[in-house]
């Protein structure tokens, strides 16, 4: 039984070590470093369980000290953030004080014990005092880091070229490029090359070939329903104070995200983009969220007065970060998709009841992903979210992003086919959240004033037809 217990304990240690290595790989620690660090940890665990002739003390010195130093080094190199300082000092204080108490109880009385207890207790008190003092220092360091960004945003907001809001009764749509995200090439294009499900995620740990792709949200100025948005993009903090942003709920959020995954220039801040178009964040009445992923939901922190409309399945089951939704949780609305069939979709939600905005369930990329169809004066636009990343991804049998596998992949492919069916109508134009192809330039030009005319819709369709055949193959 004792042997079985040790084997079980070693197996548990190996699982913890494996999880640690995965996290470090997510943080871009080189495989060569992990190839040394992992076996060192396993050897330490095995040596402590079966020390043999070496003895546990020698194992602890020969393997534990290098493993401990390596762990500290990796932590400070890839995980440490300034707000950790008070916590680390507090842990040091507790460790010193507990060691002092243990020394009192287990060491014979004498000058040596008194000296050790005095030094350990003094160190504990000093570290505790430093920990308390460092709370304000850490807060000020983060504030000082963000202060230049606030000045840069103000300068960008008031730079020449700011527009006046036009209210002439027309529906307007403005693409908002709100920064960029760094993704692996396979995540973006590897769905037909075994980047599927668990295997796909494992490959993201091994193959770090990366792409930088844009993050788009869309502003809609509607004469009847006010100022609307589809998605909200990212925030300056996600791009420039990443660890601070993802440290609000638990360190696990910071551990499982990449420090350099987002990039944003001052003029790409949502508040700046809105302001330069003549709007204020408080003008936004409704945000239609295609799904809860943080590159689509981060900007909700700047829209606290907006009603946020998203699929209940995504809220309940999707991968979301609570801090992004903190200011809008009281304003959530969940469509029931009870308006009947719409085109190739068996279920839909006519959100305002007048056919102006139709919500279409497209699960697969996330449990409750949805697309949004908006009727404009001279055509309609279909906001794709991440159902498909780019125009070329409409050729889903030739270009495919990573999918989650099983039923999720089947759902996503079904959603893609239904989208193709809607786009058979030449008056419907797709708008993507991560468009990297030349179609992006055509969209920016056609929507420069927010109001594409029939010629603009025709230009979008011409480009689509030049890239894709009628049966959705690449030309």
UniProtKB/TrEMBL annotation:
Its cofactor is Zn(2+). This is Metallo-beta-lactamase domain-containing protein. The chain crosses the membrane at residues 7-26, 32-52, 59-81, 87-105, 117-138. InterPro entries: MBL_superfamily_lactonases, Metallo-B-lactamas, RibonucZ/Hydroxyglut_hydro. It comes from the Bacteria. Belongs to the metallo-beta-lactamase superfamily. GO terms for molecular function: hydrolase activity; metal ion binding. Coiled coil: none annotated. It comes from Actinophytocola xinjiangensis. Pfam families: Lactamase_B (PF00753). Keywords: Hydrolase, Membrane, Metal-binding, Transmembrane, Transmembrane helix, Zinc. Residues 214-434 form the Metallo-beta-lactamase domain.
């Amino acid at each position: 039984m004792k042997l079985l217990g040790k084997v079980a304990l070693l197996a548990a240690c190996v699982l913890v070590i494996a999880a640690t290595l995965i996290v470090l790989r997510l943080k871009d620690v080189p495989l060569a470093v992990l190839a040394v660090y992992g076996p060192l940890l396993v050897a330490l665990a095995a040596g402590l369980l079966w020390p043999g002739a070496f003895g546990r003390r020698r194992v602890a010195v020969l393997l534990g000290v290098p493993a401990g130093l390596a762990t500290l080094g990796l932590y400070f190199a890839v995980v440490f953030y300034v707000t950790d300082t008070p916590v680390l000092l507090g842990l040091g204080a507790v460790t010193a004080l507990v060691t002092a108490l243990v020394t009192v109880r287990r060491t014979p009385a004498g000058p040596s014990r008194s000296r050790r207890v005095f030094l350990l207790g003094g160190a504990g008190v000093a570290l505790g005092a430093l920990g308390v003092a460092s709370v304000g220092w850490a807060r000020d360091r983060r504030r000082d880091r963000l202060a230049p960004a606030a000045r840069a945003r103000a300068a960008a907001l008031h730079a020449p070229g700011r527009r006046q809001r036009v209210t002439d009764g027309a529906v307007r749509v403005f693409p908002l490029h709100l920064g960029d995200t760094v993704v692996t090439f396979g995540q973006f294009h590897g769905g037909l090359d075994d980047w599927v499900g668990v295997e796909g995620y494992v490959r993201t740990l091994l193959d770090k070939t990366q792409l930088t792709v844009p993050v788009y949200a869309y502003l809609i100025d509607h004469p009847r329903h006010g100022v609307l948005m589809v998605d909200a993009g990212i925030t300056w903090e996600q791009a420039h104070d990443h660890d601070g942003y993802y440290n609000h709920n638990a360190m696990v959020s910071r551990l499982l995200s990449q420090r350099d995954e987002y990039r944003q220039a001052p003029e790409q801040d949502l508040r700046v983009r809105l302001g330069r178009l003549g709007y204020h964040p408080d003008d936004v009445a409704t945000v239609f969220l295609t799904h809860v992923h943080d590159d689509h939901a981060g900007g909700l922190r700047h829209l606290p007065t907006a009603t946020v409309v998203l699929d209940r399945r995504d809220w309940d089951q999707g991968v979301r970060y609570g801090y992004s939704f903190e200011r809008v949780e009281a304003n959530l609305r969940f469509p029931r998709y009870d308006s009947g069939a719409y085109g190739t979709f068996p279920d839909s939600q006519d959100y305002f009841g007048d056919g102006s905005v139709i919500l279409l369930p497209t699960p697969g990329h996330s449990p409750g992903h949805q697309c949004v169809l908006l009727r404009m004066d001279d055509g309609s636009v279909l906001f794709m979210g991440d159902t498909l990343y780019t125009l070329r991804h409409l050729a889903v049998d030739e270009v495919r992003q990573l999918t989650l596998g099983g039923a999720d992949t089947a759902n996503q492919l079904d959603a893609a086919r239904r989208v193709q069916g809607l786009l058979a109508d030449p008056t419907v134009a797709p708008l993507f959240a991560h468009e990297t192809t030349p179609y992006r330039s055509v969209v920016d030009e056609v929507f420069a004033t927010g109001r594409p005319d029939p010629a603009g819709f025709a230009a979008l369709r011409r480009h689509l037809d030049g890239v894709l055949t009628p049966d959705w193959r690449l030309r």
